[in-house]
Amino acid sequence: MQRKTQQFVHRLNQWRMQKISNRNFLVILAVIVGVIGGLAAAALKGLTHSIAAFLQDDVQGQYKYYLYLFFPLIGILLSVLYVRRFIRKGTFEHGMTPIIYAISRKSSRIQSHNIYSQIITSALTVGFGGSAGLEAPIAYSGSAIGANAGRFFGLNYREVTMLLACGAAAGIAGAFNSPVAGMIFAIEILLPEFSIPAFIPLLMAAATASVVSRLVYSEPLFHLVTEDWVFHALFFYVLLAVIIGGFSIYFAKVSTWAKAVFARITNPYQKVGISGISLGILIFLFPALYGEGYLAIQQILDGRMDALLANSIFADYRHIGVLIVVYAVITVFAKSLAALVTLNSGGNGGVFGPSLVMGGLLGFAFSYGINLTGWIELNVANFVVAGMAAALSGIMHAPLTAIFLIAEITGGYALMVPLMLVTAISYLINRAALRYSIYTKVLAEQGDLLTHEDKDRTVLSMMKLRYVLERNFTILRPDERPADRRHDIIHTKRNIFPVVDTDGKLLGIIYSERLFEILLGESPEKEGKTMRQLAEKPMDIISLDANMEAVMQKMNREDIWILPVVDGSGNYMGFVSKSAVFNKYRALLMRQGAYLE
């Protein structure tokens, strides 16, 4: 069966290469990826909202909030059980970071199970109240659709990467019914260096996904609510952007702390228990944390300023304006903790949605609080929208995505100037303190991030020592004498010989010039010496797991062209030479050039 499939694909590829140009075929595949990505987005939204509606509509009365204590625990547990039961042969990751890593270090390969496993686990997590967003899972699912479509048709790295980005764009476009934002998201996050032709497949994928998603699941994320901005409010937009820029730095640092805390818990079910109980308590106190949290934002946009308190156990105080502001601010920080607990405990989701909610709540607390002073009357809905854009820009380092996403999903094109202002300020504040976004920080620290600011370092970080290792050297044994290996020494193409004992340990090296002197009788005093006695200690020894940047620094510092490589136990593995590194370097530069075309 597999052979017949391979033969069919081969014949199909031969036909399409004769009839359709590669560029046109890429556009066709982008449309197909867009259709499937749009269906996946609709399926994820529909499944998640169905689970949430079932739980919320069937649970009424005075015990409703008490039952919320257990829903997140159940959702995360089901997600963990699914992964451990059905994804045994592969790995399961969530968020945008693994997608960026796949582009940088895995030739844009994404395991096919992510097409459906991301949808199932995130629907369980968020539908049962996990405080996370659906955007990262659907982008991951879309990326898997695009990458595997490219692999199926035997496309090259550049084309597979483009289809991967098309899938991510389709996912975001389908999730938000926002094709422009989906396209810009793919460019800003996944394809930071791009050319104009890249727009065409991305446009087709994003537009197709948006149409398909709207046909299947037409419920908008937010209703049109914004009004035109006024000049005297610009100062307050700037002030809000500064506040949210500072908050985005806090969120990034808390995110790092949360990952470290949960990494110390090795038992997955212990993680589920701790996180489930913690989330249950937080949602009991702050119902707006349940699921994505967009409902609370929409209620505020509709003018229900007391909605946060009205839906909580503190409903009796919903008429006190100051308490509404304080409660909204506390809810923001609670949301940050709830989202990070959800994502680091086995639940599946992303920080995309929580960023929007936290920014919207900060915009609400800021503008509503200013209005309570009586100094000035600010349009609360406008500031909620601006806060969402500022938070997304600062946390994700994606100001263009923030501008067009918020403008599309809220009808806020009239707010384009304030949106541009707050996204730029928030981004600059976060970038001044943190060079990398929440998505790329870990990859940058590990040397796995593909950047174009330092091309040499980036290309070296993409190399693995085992791929440039040379093994075709003649191995000499310590008890042998030069005459014993005359034929091998004379006919070898290498000028260096490793001396290795029977256990595989590297004892030293001998250069061919020294052995030739002995074999030609120019050093008769050394003819009876063994290889152990003739061997010399190499100037340095490289470990097999060494970073290639460190290897090249070592070679340049000591002006060495070739060095032996050993594993963690000191066993001889081969040699690494500058020539092999340079050849690999050229190959990777060509690959990067293809990626940017």
TrEMBL record:
CDD domains per the UniProt record, alphabetical: CBS_pair_SF (cd02205), Voltage_gated_ClC (cd00400)
InterPro entries per the UniProt record, alphabetical: CBS_dom (IPR000644), CBS_dom_sf (IPR046342), Cl-channel_core (IPR014743), ClC (IPR001807), ClC-type_chloride_channel (IPR050368)
Membrane association type: Multi-pass membrane protein
Transmembrane intervals: 25-45, 65-83, 160-187, 199-217, 229-252, 272-297, 317-339, 351-371, 383-406, 412-429
Cellular component terms per the entry's GO annotation: chloride channel complex
Signal peptide residues on this chain, from the entry's feature table: none
Keyword Kinase: no
Protein name: Chloride channel protein, CIC family
